[in-house]
Model the fold of this input.
Amino acid sequence: MNVKIHTPIVIAFLIVVSGCSEDRFTIVPVSGLVTLNGEPLEDAYVTFDPRSSSEDGIAGPGSFGRTDLQGRYELTTFDDRKGAVQASHRVAIRTMIAEEDSNERVKIVRKELLPDEYHRRSILTFQVPQGGTDQANFELTSTKKKR
Done:
């Protein structure tokens, strides 16, 4: 068997892998409450997308959570660590649920209850503080009707 090692590819791979080290970003616990028109918003998906302030543009892994019956959520990073990167984040909150049917077609189970300003064109931001927080709360308002 003839195996060729392409040095530039190997070097690029090592740089990318070392740049994504778990130790590079400080992950801290983050949880909070989401309300809609003053009421707890259950079964909503909350995502935190860190904004980079470093020269290399790498901000770290994003985080996500799902609200419970009381509107409370706890974040987990996309690489399965509890919490979020200690940084400024763009936040998106969605309520739409879609599933694939047996023919691999996407079926909408629940339509989006929130306006685009909370997800697709989100205006929400949050600064995750040193040590984390249990007060990452979002008080949303909407005139959209539940369907």
Notes: The first strand starts at residue 27 and ends at 28. Confidence is low (pLDDT under 50) at residues 1-21.
